[in-house]
Design a protein that fits this description.
heterodimer, A: Rossmann fold, 7 helices, B: alpha/beta, 18 strands, binds flavin-adenine dinucleotide
């Protein structure tokens, strides 16, 4: 079974952020493997360990993102594809889906796995757009995945309850981080990853002209702004019964929510 | 005249509050911009919502009746909206955001070569541009995102707009919708429901959310007692859905659901950004945590620093007394 996992490199969202003249600035330029992508890689590794085959990871991004491909290789992916685009700031989900579709049209795979969203933008569109571009059946927000009789059985988290959905291969599945705990690469994994191949391709190799890239984007980012802050609150310490009567009084008479 | 088309989400014979919020705001947006407002109901029996919808004043209602809409697969919804987009040629299609609207919007946008802007906190029309603000970086900042595509799909986070009635009488069109189940490339095998599915968390007015601090069954019982005394829905942090104390459907946050109740209790929850991403829009937030430095207190309207095992029984008792009147 050959699985292709689309992974993303994201800024560390837990680092402090400030906004300067509409652009984001962080204390660190640390970039990490997106947590949802990491779960997709983990799940693909588990499946191939059970059923045989290989995992290939595919990433669209700048030179610096190669370290994130290496991370996935160190986890156990067999090979990587780096679709090298130095400036991805103007690209939206539509553009990523176009680029990834161009690659996958030439590739062979039994399933494509992606994160259900990415930690930085939370958009969650690329997977379903890519599935549509490639005319693949798909299921989103998977929390479990099995392979039986040439079909993938996806346990997906629905808005209420969970659903078991069967998809015929080839198909596309977007993965939740509730699916598993991604493995931490071992020292051996890290050593081996250095010998694994990462194929670098350019948009031109995929028949995409540089000028077309930005026009594939259907949305434009116009800058950032602060989230409106909440009013400062009241904090109580001390005996439980006193705190509770204070709270009751405020809920009834100040907030009027009881 | 160009139009705004709104998806009307329904559950158990009721229109979801989040859809009424979107409909109310889109009525205003349509009026301000001289556009028509259309609503689409995809349901096993859509005509039962017509009276309720007329309270919010859409100019036209499309009813798509099919039993397939009661199962949760996204492909019938994608097909139905494709049909409607061709029929109505809207310039903007608006959904209330839930987890499944993302996959529906992505597929629709790809299919119609259109733009999709998911999970917006606000949006507006300026000439031929749709301008939206949406939380990014685990909801720490807002990104201003615009699109000048001819067709734009947006989904709106619950609680972003108030509902506002504007009674009218819509033209109703019954749209024939055939869905070839044999042509489905995905098959729904089974729905696994859990106790947590009874109350619609994302629609609840009061939420009592539990975190790792509740520790075990005893803590869970205290949470459920408080929720029952308030008639509230129970929510949870990732720590306790992961441990299995609460079902995954109840997770609130970046991976889980976004809620915007009138009153939110965060009990034994530290307030990690990924949790706050799903609840910071709540009107009144009560935090109960024994660590005075827990980040959750930065968001709390009222914070109680103390042991939840002492506080909850007292609180539940007092609430019962108030509710008994
Ligand atoms: C990509 C990603 C997505 C995520 N998505 C989500 C999400 O959707 N939702 C979510 O919740 N998390 C999410 N997380 C996880 C998140 O980062 C935190 O790990 C999680 O929210 C912690 O849960 P908690 O607050 O219950 O536990 P903890 O952080 O362990 O906090 C427990 C709190 O309980 C308090 N406490 C302990 N005992 C008592 C007592 N007796 N009385 C009072 N207080 C007590 C402690 O002081 C502490 O503050 C995500 C993480 C990642 C990386």
């Amino acid at each position: 079974m050959n699985l292709s996992v689309c992974i993303k490199q994201v800024p560390d969202v837990s680092a402090p952020i400030s906004i300067k003249e509409g652009t984001l600035s962080q204390d660190t330029d640390r970039m990490v493997l997106d947590a949802y992508s990491a779960s997709a890689v983990e799940e693909a590794l588990v499946l191939t360990e059970k059923h045989g085959g290989e995992v290939q990871v595919v990433l669209v991004g700048p030179e610096k993102a190669k370290e994130t491909i290496r991370k996935a290789l160190a986890m156990g992916a067999a090979s990587g594809v780096h679709i090298l685009i130095e400036d991805i700031s103007g690209l939206d989900s539509s553009a990523f889906a176009e680029i990834l579709a161009a690659w996958h049209k030439k590739a062979s795979f039994d399933a494509i796995l992606t994160g259900k969203q990415s930690q930085d933008t939370d958009a969650g569109l690329t997977g379903s757009m890519l599935a549509w571009n490639l005319e693949l059946p798909f299921a989103a927000n998977a929390v479990g995945l099995q392979f039986e009789n040439d079909s993938f059985i996806v346990k997906r988290q629905g808005d209420s309850g969970q659903e078991m959905v069967e998809l015929k291969s080839p198909c596309l599945i977007t993965c939740s981080n509730d699916m598993n705990d991604p493995r931490i690469p071992s020292l051996k994994g890290i050593m081996q990853s250095k010998r694994k191949t990462v194929e670098t391709v350019t948009p031109a190799d995929l028949g995409i002209e540089a000028s077309a890239l930005n026009s594939d984007s259907k949305t434009e980012r116009k800058g950032f702004k602060e989230v409106p802050g909440r009013e400062p609150g009241k904090k109580f310490e001390g005996e439980a019964d006193e705190m509770v009567s204070n709270l009751m009084n405020l809920l009834e008479n100040e907030a009027k929510v009881l | 005249m160009s139009k705004i088309l709104v998806h009307v989400a329904t559950a158990d014979g009721k229109i979801k509050r989040s859809s009424l919020e979107v409909l109310s705001y889109c009525r205003k947006l349509a009026d301000d911009n001289g556009l028509g407002l259309e609503a689409a109901v995809l349901d096993i029996d859509p005509s039962r919502y017509t009276d309720a919808l007329n309270t919010y004043g859409p100019d036209k209602i499309y009813n798509l009746k099919h039993p397939i809409f009661s199962n949760h697969l996204s492909s019938p919804v994608i097909d139905a909206f494709s049909l409607l987009v061709e029929k109505s040629s809207p310039r903007l299609v608006a959904f209330a955001s839930t987890e499944s609207t993302k996959e529906v919007m992505g597929a629709l946008a790809a299919r119609h070569n259109a733009a999709a802007i998911p999970d917006v906190a606000s949006f507006t029309l300026n000439g031929n541009s749709v301008d939206a603000e949406r939380p990014v970086m685990a909801a720490k900042v807002l990104s201003k995102t615009s699109s000048s595509s001819d067709l734009v799909f947006v989904s709106v986070r619950s609680g972003s707009y108030d509902t506002a009635e504007k009674p009218g009488t819509a033209e109703v069109e019954e749209v024939a919708f055939d869905f070839d189940e044999a042509g489905l490339k995905s098959v729904l095998k089974e729905v696994i429901s859990s106790a947590g599915d009874k109350v619609d968390l994302s629609e609840a007015e009061v939420v009592v959310a539990a975190g790792r601090g509740i520790k075990d069954e005893e803590g869970r019982k205290l949470i459920e007692d408080l929720a029952n005394s308030l008639g509230a829905a129970v929510g949870a942090s990732r720590a306790v859905t992961e441990s299995g104390l609460f079902p995954a459907t109840l997770q609130i946050g970046q991976t889980g659901k976004v809620v915007s109740p009138q009153l939110y209790f965060a009990v034994g929850i530290s307030g990690a950004i990924q949790h706050v991403a799903g609840m910071a829009n709540s009107k009144v937030i009560v935090a109960i945590n024994k660590d005075p430095d827990a980040p959750i207190f930065q968001y709390a309207t009222y914070g109680l620093v103390g042991d939840l095992f002492k506080i909850l029984p007292l609180l539940t008792e007092q609430i019962k007394q108030v509710k008994a009147g």
